[in-house]
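Give me the 3D structure for FMN reductase.
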Amino acid sequence: MKLVVVSAGLSVPSSTRLLADRLAAATAGRAPADVRVVELRDLAVEIAHNFASGFPGPDLASALDAVAEADGLIVVTPVFSASYSGLFKSFFDVLGVRDQDALAGKPVLIAATGGTARHSLVLDHALRPLFAYLKAVVVPTGVYAASEDWGAEGLPERIERAAGELAALMTGLSAGRGTERAEQDGSGTDGSGKDGGFTVVPFEERLAALRG
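Predicted structure for FMN reductase (212 residues):
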């Protein structure tokens, strides 16, 4: 499976990238996957040029392809003016223009960092609506990390819970695709229409169980 992490942190080192790395490690520990990190800071110039020319540069095109082909996505942004950063939004604007269905049905874990806990509602007021509009499946638990959360109780538990939800959705989708391919070529069944070695739980049932 492929797990892509989109980090919109601007500083080096970045608390946004730190949170992204922790979420990726926790997810990959539950659902083994090839992890690719997309640092939007490195793509800022190409994103701006894309708006002017309509064509992505090679690095931006590679990042857009990686996001579109991912089995799961982790997105992390710093909070600017009580919302996601302009760079973060611009990247997904470019993705949406290129392919409006690029995130359709894709499991996405949303996360954000900020200087104060007062901005934690950015997850539900900004990030969740954005990815719902892009037709993604947003995991129930979002992760917000304020400055005081680092090293405190609560953040590790939220990271683990969100990662578990994303891993479950990624695993369910991967298994579903494998079953579909087996049915198409006639393999993977015992002749009775049932899978020989495992039971595939439909994606909708997994999502309902997580939300319940």
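Residues 4 and 36 are 5 Å apart (CA to CA). Let me know if you want a second pass.
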